[in-house]
Each structure stands twice: as C-alpha cells, then as structure tokens.
Amino acid sequence: MTGIGLCLPQLGEHVTADVVTAFCRESERLGYSSLWVQDHFLWPLAPERGYAGRPGLPIPPQYRSVLSPTELLATAAAVTTTPRLGTSVLVQGNHWPSPLAQRLATLDVLSSGRLVVGLGQGWNAEEHVAAGTSIRERAARMDEFVGALRACWGPDPVSFDGEFFSIPDAIQRPKPLQQPHPPLISGASSPAGRARTAALFDGWNPAGIAVAEVLEHLEAMDAERPEGRGPLRIFHRTFVQFLGPTEPLDDVLDRLRDEVRAARAAGFEEFIIEHNFWDGITSPDDWVEVPERFATLLEIEEPTDRTEGAGRRRGGPGSVTWSG
To answer: Is the pTM of this model over 0.90?
Structure first.
C-alpha cells in the first residue's frame, strides 16, 4: 500500500510551536502515513551556487527561517503515535556521522521505531563552509558517511577508519529500535548519485519529477543493486507549487490526484506532499488547515491490477523538476 505523507511546517515565518503540534495531531487523525523534514540552516546573501545548484536561480525566501530537522521530528514523535517520521533529506555535509547517528537513534527510540533516514549531498556551498566541510568533496564524503552511520548503529565496539571520518574503538548507544537500522534512502538525482543510491541505500527519495521518469531510472538502478539486495523502496516527494505562479487549488488537487494514482499503480511506498513553498500559506492558520484541505488525496483507492514482482508499471503525469 502506498502511504500519503506530508512535509511538516518548517520553513518561513508562519511556523510556531502551536502550528507544529496542531499540524501533527490533525495529520495523524486524518490518516496521513508519514511526516517529513528537510535540512537547511543558512540563506546566503551572496550564494556561490544558485538554488538546487542551478546557476543564477534565486534561493526561495522561505529558507531565511528553517526549524532544525531532528528537533522538529522529536516534537512530532512526542505528539503522534502512528505516522512514520522521515528526513527528505538531511544534507550530509551539514553533519558528522557519529553524533548524527546518536541523534537519529534517539529519534528512532523516542518514536518507537518510526524513523526513515533520507540523506542528500546538498547544493548550498555556504552551508558546507559553515559546517566545516567542502561541497566539492560531497560525493566522496557520502560514500564514507553511509558506511560510518551503519558502523555506529552496528554491534559494539564501533570503529571506522576512512579518508574523511575516523571513529576509534568505542561503545556507541543507543542503537536504533529498527534493526539492523532505520531505512536509509537517498535523494540523489544525478547519474552518479543514482548509481550510489543503487549501491549503498535501501530506497530512493526522488523529488519533483514525474512518476514515469522515476520508473525509467528505477529500472536501471534496480539492475545495479548488489547481489542479495531487493529492489529500491520508493519514497516519492512532490510539490504543491513548483517554480512560477500559484495554481488554483482545484487544479493543484487534480494534478496531485493523478500523481497519487500513478504512484500507487507503480507500487511506491510513500507519496510525500511538500507545502513549505506554497503561496497559499500566508498565516499560521493556513498551515493548520493544510491536512484537511488536502485530505481528499487519502480517498484514492489502491489499484488492483499491479504487475507482479516489484509491483511497478510505467505511467504517470508530467511535472516540473524541483529540489527542496
């Protein structure tokens, strides 16, 4: 069954503690299956790279204020009992694996095993500088980062020795409730990133691309999986508003219904809806009303004619590429 998830209120000036709590409780009451966060902390005044790594593309103003992802998920864990709690995605250049492994294991414990860990390489060069890393080393660093996280969550004594990370023999606990670890999913979109996803991760978290395009890439990615690893689990993230003017809400809902149907026909594990960039949110009350206003998407029935095996087939509407 394909779950329908929401991105938590996180970006912009309309997010308050009351908004987050009300949003989480209403989302759970209505039956949304997951709640998600992203990971940014600087809005550079003179960015070296455009938004999502595209030269000259302005960084959305919502990024001027962003709640911290792990603390926000801890709040969601405290006020809900059933939705999965996921990162879509944590920028590995903003973190170091051993302390991050502790924070994520803590979240998995506090949420009774509901965590999904999405990782990405990031596009904000200034954030890397502020975190003491280099965006130019992000690909090689990701290879080690995943291995170091797995080591920290594995049996004690923990140790790791690489070019970027070194963890001396030690006890590191708590371990995640989910064993051997929470699902690790990748937000990579480049050819090299997709190959890394196939080799190292449990699932893929594509953002803002058509379901048909996801399936085209997925066929090649699954063919590259290491022996003994199953097909990639798909946590598909889409946007209420892409670059450009706001669509009428009825048109947005029609588009999202088509995408949900395509994702369910393809057998995706989660369909995640991002509202943080939507012009329809102009107040705290707008955030609180989001789960109810989009609840019609929960009514779309699962198809009964999926293909065998991975349960995927080609199809789905087109969309505009976007990266959060």
So the answer is: yes
